[in-house]
Design brief:
Helix content: over 70%
Number of strands: 0
Order of helices and strands: HHHHHHHHHHHHHHHHHHHH
Structural class: mainly alpha
Largest sheet: none
Radius of gyration: 22 Å
Distance between the termini: 14 Å
Number of helices: 20
Number of domains: 2
Length: about 475
């Protein structure tokens, strides 16, 4: 199997696990918007975003370090040394965080303090186990974990929200229980505990893992850093209801974020394994340009269907959020491009560039939020996010030239962005005829842009 076929196969496998989680999210949207107030949804969103922000900091992003160091390793003992060393640091950090957190909340009254600590601890172990599964090249188990987690969230959310009427607490408990079940499943399938032994702790390797992983923290949480700063600025200037609207506005762009996550998981492995090949630049360029066409054309399709999706899935009290969606699509595109280029840092085991570009983008996002939110309101948050990710991508194009040189298909980029603008104009007209026309244009654009990918997928299905 050639590398393009392997990349496609891994992308499909990762899609099975990740799509299920987002599908459940959309299936549950009517439940959430019915049983939670706009303010409750804003609180849920900011706490979840905060947890996702804290988790990589607490574990030093060692899940990426584990993955990178065992991906190319076949020796069982060496794998044990990597996992044992990393787990020692992770468990120590979780204990220190828990102690510090509990001391702080002796003096602060916070309604959801126990929910946060349970989410952080369970999610940390969950993410570490996931990357161990990936590093051991057990992608099918990885995908099935996503399906199990999704089913568990669906069942528990229906139980705690609709039947027991636990409200926001029920939503938090559902996610925690789903992760616990997923951890148990991974242990059952892979027996991860067999790789953990304090006697294999290696201090020199610990320093190497930390030096590799810590600079990746801003890179990994860049999307969440942007959204977290948005949430705090929005909450300060506009209140929790505005946060609830912005959270809903982000639901459709999250589909694109999912597409990026799926491809990134497969591409990360392929980029690392092919980094030292002589035709690396040609291969990277081919993959990036194909990804560029897919992602922008996919965003055009999503944009054309956005109003229909809001009408079908989301309560009328949130409909005002629709106007913020288009710029969030563009922000997600630039975030995805940044992630693609970010694999260069990991492939070369030189992650400092990932740190600096992410910090620059976060600072730009914060400054723009500070300037724009008081003047133009909630739309300022979507503008700041889009521009910050665009600048991050441009910085990474320049920085990563020392690792590889990607030849960008600027002609396709210009044509597709022009099509995005055309569909956006039809979207803003709010006329039923314009909506149907935008859908037709979007679908044609997607099919023409991705015909080679679609032909390859169909041919593989037929061979099976």
């Amino acid at each position: 199997m050639n590398r393009e076929s392997t990349l496609l196969k891994n992308t499909i496998i990762y899609a099975l696990g990740n799509i299920s989680s987002k599908m459940v999210g959309f299936v549950l949207l009517p439940l959430y918007t019915t049983y939670l107030t706009v303010s409750d949804f804003g609180i849920w969103d900011i706490i979840t975003t905060t947890v996702l922000f804290l988790m990589p900091i607490i574990i030093f992003q060692l899940n990426d370090g584990i993955y990178r160091h065992i991906l190319e390793e076949n020796d069982h003992v060496k794998i044990q040394i990597v996992i044992s060393t990393a787990m020692f640091v992770v468990i120590r950090n979780i204990l220190l965080f828990t102690l510090g957190y509990l001391l702080i909340f002796l003096f602060i009254d916070f309604k959801y303090e126990w929910i946060v600590i349970f989410q952080v601890c369970i999610m940390s172990i969950y993410e570490i186990f996931l990357q161990i599964v990936r590093g051991l090249k057990n992608s099918q188990t990885y995908a099935f974990v996503g399906i199990i987690n999704s089913i568990a969230i669906l069942v528990f959310s229906l139980l705690f929200l609709k039947i027991f009427h636990l409200g926001l607490n029920g939503l938090f408990i559902s996610t925690i229980l789903a992760m616990v079940i997923s951890i148990i499943y991974m242990q059952y399938k892979i027996n991860i505990i067999q790789y953990i032994n304090i006697n294999f702790y290696n201090k020199k390797l610990k320093i190497e893992l930390i030096k590799y992983s810590i600079p990746l923290i801003p890179n990994v949480i860049s999307w969440w850093v942007m959204n977290l700063s948005d949430r705090y600025f929005i909450g300060f200037y506009l209140g929790t209801e505005a946060n609830g609207l912005y959270a809903i506005a982000n639901k459709l762009p999250t589909i694109m974020f999912l597409a990026n996550t799926i491809f990134y998981l497969a591409w990360q492995e392929s980029a690392i394994m092919n980094f030292n090949n002589k035709d690396r630049d040609r291969y990277y360029s081919k993959m990036f340009n194909g990804y560029l066409k897919f992602l922008i054309s996919f965003s055009i399709v999503l944009l054309s269907f956005s109003e229909i999706a809001f009408m079908l899935l989301i309560d009328n009290k949130y409909h005002h959020a629709l106007q913020f969606v288009p710029l969030l699509y563009l922000g997600t595109i630039f975030s995805a491009f940044s992630s693609f280029y970010g694999t260069g840092y990991q492939s070369a085991k030189d992650t400092r560039g990932a740190f600096t570009t992410s910090v620059y983008a976060a600072v730009i996002n914060g400054v723009l939020n500070l300037l724009l939110l008081p003047i133009i309101g909630l739309q300022g948050a979507s503008i700041s996010t889009m521009l910050a990710f665009l600048i991050m991508w441009l910085l990474r194009i320049k920085q990563t030239k020392k690792y590889f040189n990607i030849s960008i298909d600027f002609k396709s980029l210009f044509i597709l962005l022009s099509m995005f603008v055309i569909v956006l104009c039809l979207f803003n007209s709010k006329h039923i005829f314009a909506t149907y026309l935008s859908i037709i244009i979007a679908l044609i654009t997607f099919l023409v842009s991705n015909k080679m990918i679609l032909v390859n997928v169909v041919s593989k299905v037929k061979r099976r």
